[in-house]
Amino acid sequence: MHTMPYISTERGETVGASVSIDADYCIGSGDCVRLLPDAFELREELGHSVPLPGAADADLDLLERAAHACPTQAIRVVAADGTVVHESNRG
Question: Average pLDDT per run of 10 along the chain, which is 91 residues long?
Answer without folding.
Answer: 47 71 95 96 94 92 96 95 89 61
